[in-house]
Amino acid sequence: MAGSNPNAKPMNLTLKVWRQKNRITKGGIVDYQVKDISPDMSFLEMLDVLNEDLLRQGQEPVAFDHDCREGICGSCNLFINGRAHGPEQGTTTCQLHMRKFSDGDTITIEPWRATAFPVNKDLSVDRSAFDRIIQAGGYVSINTGGTPDANEIPIPKDISDRAFEAATCIGCGACVASCKNASAMLFVSAKVSQLALLPQGHVERKTRVENMVAQMDLEGFGACTNIGSCAAECPVGISLENIAILNQEFLAAKATSNNLA
Amino acid sequence: MFPDSKIPEGPITEKWEKHKFNVKLVNPANKRKYDIIVVGTGLAGASAAASLAELGYNVKAFTFHDSPRRAHSIAAQGGINAAKNYQNDGDSVYRLFYDTVKGGDYRSREANVYRLAQVSVNIIDQCVAQGVPFAREYGGLLANRSFGGAQVSRTFYARGQTGQQLLLGAYSALSRQVAYGKVKLYTRSEMLDLVTVDGQARGIITRNLLTGEVEQHAAHAVVLATGGYGNVFFLSTNAMYCNATAAWRAHKKGAYFANPCFTQIHPTCIPVSGDYQSKLTLMSESLRNDGRVWVPATKETAEKLRKGEINVNDIQEADRDYFLERKYPAFGNLVPRDVASRNAKMMCDEGRGVGSTGLAVFLDFADVIQRTSAEAVSQKYGNLFDMYAKITGENPYERPMRIYPAVHYTMGGLWVDYNLQTSVPGLYATGECNFSDHGANRLGASALMQGLADGYFVIPYTIGDYLAQTPPKPVTTEHPAFQQAQADVEARVQKLLSINGTRTPDDFHKKLGHLMWEYCGMSRNAEGLRYAKAEIQKLRREFWSDLKLAGTENEMNQALEKAGRVADFLELGELMVDDALDRNESCGGHFREEYQTPEGEALRNDDEYAYVAAWQYTADNQPEILNKEELTFENVKLTQRSYK
User: Fold this and answer.
1) Residue of chain A whose alpha carbon sits nearest to that of B393
2) A2 falls in which pLDDT band (50, 70, 90)?
3) Last residue of a domain, one of B354, B381, B408
4) Which of B75, B250, B574, B586 lies most in the core, judged by the most C-beta atoms within 10 Å?
5) ipTM of this complex > 0.95?
6) How does this protein sit in the membrane (chain B) (predicted)?
7) Tens digit of each residue's pLDDT (9 = 90 or more) over A28-61
8) H helix or E strand, kind and range, residue B192
9) Chain B: nearest CA to A17, how far in angstroms?
């Protein structure tokens, strides 16, 4: 077919997959064989093949989260051979292709591991903690209507571009999964710095950072010890610079506001 | 009896202003006495839920995703149109309106489209105020680009991730209302039925996708913002979970389904590479601003290329056919999506397609790279080029991309009146879920515009008109209709699980998708459609006798979820075929081979088919009733679309 490498041969692989019935049951690794995997398949299409085989045999398919399969919705979240989203840098699981693997490989597939991300089933985890952090302040408090003309707020292009870079976070949780402390600092900092950089976010910048950090702590995410594995494994390249901005914003807020104890 | 489309009287420029004054208002102190259900949290749903909650209504928002931020709006790349005329290039509300009606091949409602163009300017203001980081110029003001089918630069964008940034903006507004307690958020909850009481929408039945629990929810009004049905085709650019179930269930409870055969095939997608393919990937058509579309000038050259006997970069200019530039000198590579897609298909049908399957054409950036630089191209399209390279393993900076059309958007959807109310009182449909604004073909960068227009600026006004006429008394799930609907949902789930056949949901879905693509896709004819109808009926019978599932209903069971959606696709697919058969003309995305001009362009029949086909459900396996809403055009002259 029309792939990149017409000479690449189909692969046979051994999969070691985390299976767990539900949140309260203990899980474990189960081995599966998959055959005739095309190098042009995406990683999730390879799992589709496994799941179709399982279902035809009357066994329960492996549950995993996925949706857009274009690397933007942030649903997919597999820990592949010990790395969030697998071996390829800057890539979500759905955009990882089997040409990155070789015939005969054994691939270990696990869910994100973090106290704040409990397992729902098999490879699916609950990331609603991220939503609650955004609910704590990841917005500009304006209602619909009554806003000024868009061009009344000129913003220097470099500032706008930096805010955009921070805003591209897809909320997948790879940063948490890659951190030895399961810290959510990169996720939180991306939203804090997007809104701290933009004039629209200035009015609430102090309360925002205080409330979001407080919620992050409440959810049971670990502390940041500046290792940087979060940024190294982030599929969309969210920069560590954001954590520096978050720390600065947080300290400035604590030093000058009376919002929180 | 066809419901009134409720288009306000008066000149088109004044209709919306007058209507906003004439609709009834709900007293501010009474708003908290009304409950509204919003299903779906994409652009249309999140913006509606947030805006309604800001007004003071109690909102329950439902999504089958784990978070509202995952909705498929997030994948829109290119941009959002607005008639700001920031570029001083002759744009106006009227021009955006005119372009949209013409682009839709004169099968949309003038009044709705005009309103869309009017509120488009407010959307940009709203999003910027939320902190959406649109692209900017060095002077700090917003940047624009021109986009497929438009001769002015009215498209606002955030690199190739405009949908993501707009959705995160709407998600932030929604999150704020969740924090205030005005929106109660239900994640991983799938709507499986609509509940009507005395002919009015009164609530929904959902299934919790983690526990399997079937739940009843009551409200004074229900808003469906559940997206389009492109996944009927199995392979599409839609996300994997996109489905028609909520809209289809509402249809079976009385909501008319309008123009189901109007589907959009997007020209710039990455071609299919194998049978295992789970979905297709779209690349923004902004690529057509700089990329040039071509195929080899002769069949012979194309064949040599497909066999690998020659290299693409060795083909001389004279041996290339830039067919869009040749056939449409005025618009060139920027012709509307339906025209671009159909021409690519024609080239492949002529045997001049490329790639090993012959089902692809080239999109070439060599000229623009030479004229500017690879860095300049990367600045504009970097993420799209990276995505292409990741999926195909080829470097688009060095050799032209291969593209082929794929199903992308559905213009058809639940019929709604000017207030976005369906034919069921109290049930509203917004965004891609309704049929209202795009006619037979949607222009690029108009989906985001419509979703947000409906949610931020239309439904907050129009739903009040209905609620003001509904007593502010609490609603509950006490009525027997709720128990009945829940029992029906549970019985259906049981039935799916108990078939115990041999074939998986995906197996049926692929077969259906193949039928739809072959016979109800880029071009259709009566014979093929009749064949497809019979085959779909057969496939549906097989589904209900030979489906294979595993696991139980009381847990996370993704195959069971999929099966329910495929069951609905198997019914909707047949209605799409019926609609395509009824429409004996070609218009926009609906190309009937029997009706074309001598040059092979779509040939409309305005005398007989200038209507919205609104289908009314009767009973299972029975023909639906076709209701016609005549379209009248007072402001735009109907012409043969010409992009030459």
Assistant:
1) A4
2) very low
3) B408
4) B250
5) yes
6) Peripheral membrane protein
7) 999 999 999 999 999 999 999 999 999 999 999 9
8) strand B189-197
9) 17
